[in-house]
Amino acid sequence: MCYETTSETTDDIRIEIRGPGIEKDWGGKGGHDMKDGDSWVINEIIENPENQQVLFLLYEDDSPYQKSTNSLLDDLIGRFTIPPEVGVFTRDLPDILSSPHTTHYQISYEVGRDTGSGNGTLPHTYYLTIQSVKCNDAQESRDEIFIKINDENVWEEHNLKSGETKWPSPQYITVPTHVKMEVWERDTSSSDRIGTYEFDIYNSRFNSTLNNVDIPQSHVFKRDSGIVGDAKYTVAYIISQNRE
Predict the structure, then answer these.
(1) In this predicted model, what pLDDT tens digit does every residue of 57-76 receive, in sequence order?
(2) Residue 151 and residue 149: Cα distance in Å, rounded?
(3) Dihedral, CA atoms, 62, 68, 69, 75, nearest 10 degrees?
(4) Where do the domains of the chain lie, and which CATH numbers do they carry?
(5) What average pLDDT score do residues 76-91 get?
(6) How far apart are CA 123 and CA 85, in angstroms?
(7) What pLDDT, in 10s, does the model give residues 211-244?
(8) What is the pLDDT of residues 150-162, one digit of tens each?
């Protein structure tokens, strides 16, 4: 999660994971564009068979004319070691925030353990299911709505009018501990984003769930500026949990 970029409007972010037999990179040449308020969800499992500490490094590519994955050409925002400790964790980078208006990124990750004997502790698998979508106020006479979860299209409806409620077919969408939900209205020329809602399923600082698992939740998405007309939708959903 990007709370505050560097001195630039948009940062080109690269991530490196290093450890014994581990070498992972995200962002590629030129980095991944991030600005204030953006989240970058990487839903990938990294195996650590040696059960050793792993180094996490966050870079900003500050050389637009020489795109490279060479760390020597990038600005190091921060780094920390990930011990082989099971749980869900959050870290701020850089470690010391010198003022309210300084570079600030927050990293959330989960560590699990597999002993090979069936007694190991694997990371939780979380699922999001959209239970209903209510059109409180359509932007047009009939809206063509689609919903994104962590930047992936998961549901759409072509004819929604004010007062209607749709109940999507049950679909278990695998999600990480940080979830970004967006509601869009599709037009012929372009699409209007009605709203965005981001939340964390688990808060490691308090060792508790923020968004209670197995309890129905809902969020209202609305927009009345920057688009033609007003739009308001209520999305009801539930988070469920399992262990692989």
Answers:
(1) 999 876 554 444 455 557 88
(2) 5
(3) -20
(4) 2-111 (2.60.40), 125-243 (2.60.40.150)
(5) 84
(6) 11
(7) 567 888 999 999 887 777 789 999 999 988 764 4
(8) 989 999 998 899 9
Q: Which residues contact 155 (CB under 8 A, 6 or more apart)?
A: 130, 133, 146, 147, 168, 171
In DSSP terms, which residues pair with 124 in a beta bridge? 243
Q: For residue 110, what are its two tokens? A: 């989960």
Q: How far apart are CA 154 and CA 98, in angstroms?
A: 40
Which structure tokens are listed for 64?
């637009």
Which residues have a Cβ under 8 Å from the Cβ of 73 and sit 6 or more positions away? 61, 63, 66
**Long-range contacts (CB closer than 8 Å, 24 or more residues apart) made by 69-78:** 69/14, 69/25, 69/28, 69/29, 71/16, 74/14, 74/31, 75/6, 77/6, 77/103, 77/105, 78/105
Q: What is the largest CA-CA distance in the chain?
A: 59
Q: Give the tens place of pLDDT for each residue, 118-173.
A: 444 555 678 899 999 999 999 888 999 999 999 899 999 988 999 999 999 888 89
Q: What phi and psi values does residue 177 have, to the nearest 5 degrees?
A: -75, -20
154, 148 Cβ separation under 8 angstroms = yes
Q: Average pLDDT, whole number, for the chain?
A: 81
